[in-house]
Amino acid sequence: MFWSENSENTDVFVIPDDVIDVVFAIKCKTLPVEHAYVLSMVIQQALPWIADEEHAGIHQIHVAQSGNGWMRPEDTEHGVLHVSHRTKMTLRLPKERVEEAKMTLLNQTFDIDGHALTIGKGSDKPFTALPTLFSRYVVTNEGDDEMAFMHWASAQLQTMNIPVKKMMAGMQNTIKAPHGPLFTRSLMVAELEPEQSVRLQQKGMGAHRTMGCGLFVPQKGIKAVNSDE
Questions:
Q1: Tens digits of per-residue pLDDT, 27-78?
Q2: Of 3, 12, 34, 174, which sees the most CB atoms within 10 A?
Q3: How far apart are CA 149 and CA 211, in angstroms?
Q4: What is the pLDDT of residues 181-225, one digit of tens each?
Q5: What is the maximum span of the chain, computed from C-alpha positions, in angstroms?
Q6: What's the angle, vertex CA 139, arms to CA 19 and CA 204, rounded to 5?
């Protein structure tokens, strides 16, 4: 854990909209817990340019941890997610690609390992400049302990001219893919200045953005990092 105090900055910052999230309604009953790779492949087939866009990414689809007697399965290889009507699919896109993505994906149905996923209308979700950001999956090296990961993450932030004030590593996770497993950790970065917060959302951290890795989303506080909304 890194932790240092910060002086208050009252400068006004206008949030740029050159990169935004686009939130798509979806129609889908169930999805595999391990859907990152297949989702990435079908979206890349529909939007072949997305892998080459520096700031683009494909968020994994998440549902609540539990509800109505259902618990999120611990068996990630064979388990399924029960998708509610409120569940969305989110793409991170440069502004000039947004309308093309909306039109191309609208009403398309994809096969996600035997589970039908139909894409509905997309809505723009510009970045916010909250001081706390969270990424569920940041790719790390197999065998790296928490301290090694934190030093690597700190170096990545420094390359973006983002000083480390408060940062905390979280859960380890393995994402399965044909080219081999991806070893990841969650990461919270706090007490960011508004411009730093937006920059980290735009740039992300590490590899495999089209599989939902290295994509940061705002959190209202550190407590929210421990919840899977």
A1: 999 999 999 999 999 999 999 999 999 999 999 998 865 333 333 445 455 6
A2: 34
A3: 20
A4: 999 999 999 999 999 999 999 999 999 999 999 999 999 866 544
A5: 53
A6: 15
Q: Which two tokens stand for residue 34?
A: 């391990």
Residue 7 binned pLDDT confidence (cut-offs 50, 70, 90): low
Q: Count other C-beta atoms under 10 Å from residue 223's C-beta.
A: 9
Residue 121 neighbours by CB under 8 Å, 6+ apart: 24, 25, 102, 106
Nearest to 193 by CA among 160, 227, 226: 160
Residue 173 has pLDDT above 90, yes or no: yes
pLDDT on residue 76? 52
The Cα 183–Cα 133 span in angstroms is: 20
CATH number of 128-226: 3.30.70.1210
> Which CATH number is 19-125 given?
3.30.70.1890
Q: What is the spatial distance between Cα 184 and Cα 222, in angstroms, rounded to a whole number?
A: 20
Q: How many Å apart are CA 203 and CA 181, to the nearest integer?
A: 23
Q: Terminal CA-to-CA distance of the chain, rounded, Å?
A: 24
Residue ranges, CATH 3.30.70.1210, the chain: 128-226
